[in-house]
Write a structure and sequence with these properties.
- This is Branched-chain amino acid transport system ATP-binding protein.
- Belongs to the ABC transporter superfamily.
- This protein has a six-stranded mixed β-sheet, sandwiched between helices.
- It contains ten helices and ten strands.
- It has one domain: 3-Layer(aba) Sandwich (Rossmann fold).
- The N and C termini lie far apart (37 Å).
- α3 packs parallel to α6.
- Bound molecules: adenosine-5'-diphosphate (ADP) and magnesium ion (MG).
């Protein structure tokens, strides 16, 4: 963690996605998506179920082939770079549904998050990351499968942080999380951004909670961006919710 932020004299976003397309075999699921994620910003991509949010994150993290367009991270292409090469470059994905190792302890899950890094560094970072998640610290020896949905989400985020991300991409961190823990998780994400200067790309169906902590927001529908702007502007726009978010 604690990546020094490299000041960018050209003001280039940390991630620039331009006209990106991706497909499941012959079924195209992203149709030319363009987004920018500035350094140390929180950017959310909103959309109803099936809009293409997970597909976008999978395409950006080397889990799904990119069939067109570009994705430039820190000046270098990440399109079709395998996931295991992206993690050491700082592109880290917290998947939908958390995917913690249920049979392993909280501590063991965290150690695995740092598998690409020297063990001594990871040990030091575990203490630091647990500072953001006191509930996890209390349950450090518990098996992950015994945690609540919200606690498992915290664990998935903490595990992602142990990979030392420069860009942390989160797929529906609110899903399956009790309301009170949702707020705790999102405000912690903002604290982490503020304290670590970490850049966050969050895809969410819960527009309110995501826009509340985001700087910029995008709305996607059937694999296309249909709207974007400052999060505060999108948050005040009831038409968006009616038209695109099914709410
Ligand atoms: N493994 C898959 N094979 C074929 N189509 C898929 C697969 N996963 C998702 N899709 C399709 O891609 C589209 C976008 O899905 P997804 O990215 O999961 O949406 P979201 O995350 O926004 O709910 C949907 O039409 C979905 O049916
Ligand atoms: Mg999804």
């Amino acid at each position: 963690m604690a990546n020094a932020v490299e000041p960018d004299p050209h003001g280039e976003p940390l991630l620039r996605v331009d006209n990106l397309s991706a497909a499941y075999g012959k079924i195209r699921a992203l149709h030319g998506v363009s987004i920018e994620v500035p350094q140390a910003a929180i950017v959310c991509v909103l959309g109803a179920n099936g809009a293409g949010k997970t597909t976008l994150l999978r395409a950006l993290s080397g889990l799904l082939p990119v069939t067109g367009g570009t994705a430039i991270f820190s000046g270098q292409s990440i399109a079709n770079v395998p996931a295991e090469q992206l993690v050491p470059r700082g592109v880290v994905h917290v998947p939908q549904g958390r995917m913690v190792f249920a049979q392993l302890s909280v501590k063991e899950n965290l150690v695995l998050g740092g598998y690409t890094r020297p063990a001594a560094e990871v040990r030091h970072d575990i203490d630091r990351v647990l500072g953001y998640f006191p509930r996890l610290k209390e349950r450090i020896t518990s098996r992950a499968g015994t945690l609540s949905g919200g606690e498992q989400q915290m664990l998935a985020i903490a595990r992602g942080l142990l990979a030392k991300p420069r860009l942390l991409m989160l797929d529906e961190p609110s899903m399956g999380v009790a309301p009170i823990l949702k707020d705790a998780i999102f405000s912690t994400l903002r604290d982490i951004r503020d304290q670590e200067r970490l850049t966050l790309l969050i895809v969410e169906q819960d527009a309110d909670i995501a826009l509340d902590i985001s700087d910029q927001g995008y709305v996607i529908e059937t694999g296309r961006v249909v709207m974007h702007g400052p999060a505060a502007e999108l948050a005040g726009n009831e038409d968006i919710r009616r038209a695109y978010l099914g709410g």
